[in-house]
Structure to design on (487 residues):
């Protein structure tokens, strides 16, 4: 199968091709100011490769939904689904190799970042048997991988940046090839941009962006001025999937178009001034204007201060009287609701692999369903309680877990769940948990990460690992003086 597609022509009118198979292995970065033609370039790339590879588009402005009118893409309007449903769809998309467009235009910026993070993490965490090749296009990537904190919360920013970093840095082995577009390289996180080996640089005007673009293209700084003079729809391309030397590309025409408004000049309406006034103010001028209320009489300053003092005294007396009449009602104990919510969440076998922000929101909703006036745990407290629950401890106040929790204090919170699971097995005299069980507790399907986790806990003196000649493993907890059964 020929994996090359034509995206445009060079200065001599010769066709410029992109090798899609090479692109899947080396990733793509597109940069250009607003109006330089980035979305047109991505649309051309998607149209030409639609029959060659599965396509997944993160579309913050709803520009690419029209691809579904001509091709087999499925549009997912993110505003219509919950976070759990978005995560489930991400897993199914990898399994069934569906080409989709995730339209985020109905969400605010923080919700867009959170939704994109959940969706990308679901793609990334798919089982190994579903690691099929897919081109993941992210438009306006500086929104999802910002180089600096902005108006969104740090939790959402970190989750979104982590998902984009996974896509660009570690996605290749999972079949995910990132193709990201940004208005400014200076606004895009450097560790995300640095993983691309193919570049298409459009018009930009700021010196810092021109300098970075020139560095990526291997041009001298004095040649960077050429980037400022590029016309709309013209790009400089470089990379193993495009060309070994910088090449000027004029992007070709597309078969579909965005539903956004046109940027071309249009003739003004021919209606006269009076007709236009009639259309604008129809049914408004016939309605009588409301009579403004009479202006209040001015009050002397000393009189106003006296009124405030009297009102405050009356309010204090009334509040005291009401308090005396009300019976004393003890606040409900939130612990049963917390334990019930944690049990329900862990009934989902995939919950350990969901993002922290999604889990905390799920926990908050479950607590409110239990008629708690407010969420009883903040994010930091929830992180620790959920880790303990994954290890099998739902009530940390129980005295029988005191020594175990004391032994766990030397470890970071993210390692709490697998350590508790091992320690419980030692206390109960059960076989040592296998790597799959520890992976579910730790939130990973990577055997290598589990091995590194066990090594780290052993170096910290929290555990001692023993293996017999039959390859069976047992883990001891020195602080408890106990060991699991060999498994």
């Amino acid at each position: 199968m020929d994996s090359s597609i034509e995206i445009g022509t060079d200065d001599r009118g010769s066709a410029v091709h992109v090798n899609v198979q090479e692109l899947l292995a080396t990733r793509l970065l597109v940069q250009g100011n607003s109006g330089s033609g980035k979305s047109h370039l991505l649309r051309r790339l998607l149209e030409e490769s639609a029959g060659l590879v599965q396509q997944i588009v993160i579309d913050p402005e709803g520009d690419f939904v029209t691809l579904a009118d001509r091709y087999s893409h499925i549009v997912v309007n993110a505003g219509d689904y919950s976070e759990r449903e978005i995560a489930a769809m991400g897993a199914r998309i990898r399994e069934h190799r569906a080409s989709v467009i995730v339209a985020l235009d109905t969400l605010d910026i923080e919700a867009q970042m959170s939704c994109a993070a959940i969706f990308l993490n679901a793609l990334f965490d798919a089982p190994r048997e579903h690691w099929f090749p897919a081109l993941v296009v992210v438009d306006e990537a500086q929104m999802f991988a910002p180089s600096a904190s902005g108006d969104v919360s740090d939790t959402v920013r970190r989750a979104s940046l982590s998902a984009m970093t996974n896509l660009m840095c570690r996605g290749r082995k999972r079949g995910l090839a990132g193709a990201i577009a940004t208005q400014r390289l200076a606004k895009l996180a450097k560790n995300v941009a640095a993983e691309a080996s193919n570049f298409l640089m459009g018009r930009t005007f700021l010196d810092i962006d021109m300098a970075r673009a020139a560095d990526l293209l291997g041009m001298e700084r004095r040649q960077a001025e050429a980037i400022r003079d590029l016309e709309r729809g013209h790009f400089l391309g470089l990379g193993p999937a495009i060309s070994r030397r910088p090449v000027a590309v004029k992007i070709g025409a597309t078969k579909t178009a965005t539903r956004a408004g046109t940027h071309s000049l249009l003739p003004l309406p021919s209606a006269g001034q009076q007709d236009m006034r009639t259309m604008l103010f129809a049914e408004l001028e016939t309605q009588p204007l409301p009579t403004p209320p009479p202006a209040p009489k001015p009050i002397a300053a000393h009189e106003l201060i006296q009124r405030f003092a009297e009102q405050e005294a009356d309010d204090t007396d009334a509040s005291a009287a009401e308090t005396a009449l009300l019976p004393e009602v003890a606040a409900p104990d939130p612990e049963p609701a917390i334990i019930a919510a944690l049990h329900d969440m862990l009934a989902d076998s995939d919950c350990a692999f969901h993002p922290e922000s999604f889990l905390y929101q799920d926990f908050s909703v479950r607590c409110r369903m239990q008629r708690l006036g407010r969420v009883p745990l903040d994010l930091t407290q929830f992180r620790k309680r959920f880790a303990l629950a994954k290890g099998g401890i739902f009530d940390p106040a129980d005295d029988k877990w005191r020594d175990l929790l004391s032994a766990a204090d030397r470890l970071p919170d993210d390692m709490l769940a697998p350590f508790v699971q091992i320690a419980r097995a030692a206390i109960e005299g059960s076989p040592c948990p296998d790597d799959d069980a520890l992976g579910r507790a730790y939130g990973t399907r990577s055997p290598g990460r589990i091995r590194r986790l066990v090594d780290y806990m052993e170096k910290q003196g929290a555990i001692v690992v023993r293996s017999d000649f039959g390859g069976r493993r047992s883990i001891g907890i020195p602080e408890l003086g106990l060991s699991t059964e060999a498994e």
Remarks:
- The chain has three domains: 4-251, 333-390, 393-487.
- The mean pLDDT is 82.
